[in-house]
Amino acid sequence: MENKFLELELLVPYGKRFSGSSNGWLVAVNKDWTVTLYKPYSMVKEGNNLDTCIRLPCIFPIELEYDLDDPQAVFYKSMGIDIENLYDYHVYKALITTDPLANPSECTVVVIFGPCNELAFLRLAQDTTWTKIEPTISFLSDDIMHFNGLFYAVNQTNGELISFDVTDLCDSTIKYVAPEVPNFAPQRTHIKRYLVESCGGEILQVERYIKWNKVDNARMTLLFRILRFDFDEKNWIEIENLGDMALFLGDNSSVSISTSDFVGLQPNHIYFTHDIDLITSASNPTICDLGMYDIERKNYKLHFAIDSTTLRKMKSQPPIWVVPTFNEY
């Protein structure tokens, strides 16, 4: 692909929030609570009529009464979410294990959904309904990853790590893998957590410290902290240097990339977007919390220059990272 330009056609709906970006596909929830996978681009080629979207079943719809006293309605109103558009925020994050067109028999979709950030999965070639993964204790999932054949989820509250397998519907056993992470968050800040596989094949947990400004209806990322999971010690170890790696974080499945393979990327940096969280107004945010974080200097080296008109348009469709895949079907 070096020194080559590809003509691509974008094939995505406008003005819709994407709940995830994984393996080159975007994930969105529809008004009828079904889920659609979108291939956001196609190589412009004569006679290429390949489907670029895949429909999945309805995912545990929420039925709310339009009543000011309904507890769930009150909760969503406090988050700034219009009940009529609740479906748009029903899935918090999504993961696709492999390209659903190239390998449908091996493709599993795992999502974090609902007001309690529950887990559910669907095996594309086997299941006609979604199946919940239910931990034995309260677990507020903040991110998910697929690593060495198992799925992992991190608890937003304390950084605890669990693993589970979905090969057998009758035995999706949950294992508690790692204990909670000591909290070093400054006062009045919120921690958002990400899981990412490093280029060296290790599990990283990234803590993003966020401050919310109610006056400006805006949030700001203060700093990041990175921890590596030690499978021998069953514990988290803080690291302060990623070497030539760069991380891409947001509503997408988190990605690590070796910058030596890509001209223009900064090593030891985190590229981040303004994604959904558990504290800010979801339906009317000020999209501003995006940029590059220099891990060594612990500061923002550069925020992306985006004009105010474009920022306003992002309210209905926040930015999301997409990693292109060019498979032959």
TrEMBL record:
<dbReference type="InterPro" id="IPR050942">
    <property type="entry name" value="F-box_BR-signaling"/>
</dbReference>
<dbReference type="Pfam" id="PF03478">
    <property type="entry name" value="Beta-prop_KIB1-4"/>
</dbReference>
<dbReference type="InterPro" id="IPR005174">
    <property type="entry name" value="KIB1-4_b-propeller"/>
</dbReference>
<protein>
    <recommendedName>
        <fullName>KIB1-4 beta-propeller domain-containing protein</fullName>
    </recommendedName>
</protein>
<feature type="domain" description="KIB1-4 beta-propeller">
    <location>
        <begin position="13"/>
        <end position="286"/>
    </location>
</feature>
